[in-house]
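Lab meeting prep.
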Amino acid sequence: MIAVGIGARAGTGVAELATAVAAALAEAGLEVLDGTVLATLDRRAAEPGVRELSRVLGWRLVAFGAGELAGQAVPGPSRVVAAVVGTPSVAEAAALLAAGTAAELVLPKRVRGGVTVAIARGGPRAEPG
């Protein structure tokens, strides 16, 4: 399973999100068909751009609360992100949680055009919540 975690400001459009995800996949040597899950913070999952990206890619959208994301160890925590959304990581933590059992980062967080993307590989996971 390949899970792509994303973090972005409210109101970020599908074009910006898609560009960042495509760049991250290319850097990791992956293609859109390799992905299965788009994961993010619960309040970002309600955003039109994120929902549209999930639909266009044909990936399942998985959302996590800030508390759940904050409980996931990540290599690149951010105090700034923690102050803004209540968790030191969105993209890396969401990718790892969504990838499930024995998840590992294939690509640590990358920022492109204000969108943060991380990619994890792992096994199946039960639905959150």
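Slide two material, second protein:
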Amino acid sequence: MAARNAASRRWRKSTRSNENQACVEVALGVVEAGVRDSKSPVSGELSFPATSWHAFVARVD
């Protein structure tokens, strides 16, 4: 996912965030999930296999 244009993906901010807290944004794809810092989106992103991301979310939710 890092090789793709970050601006062309649909990024979503955590519903548990507010203006004063650092939080993450996620762009979900069929194969990969991208994760980036919402306060500095141009700093880069991490990419995970979609199956791993969904397993992580299910575990911490």
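Talking points for slide two:
The chain has one domain: 6-60.
The chain has a mean pLDDT of 82.
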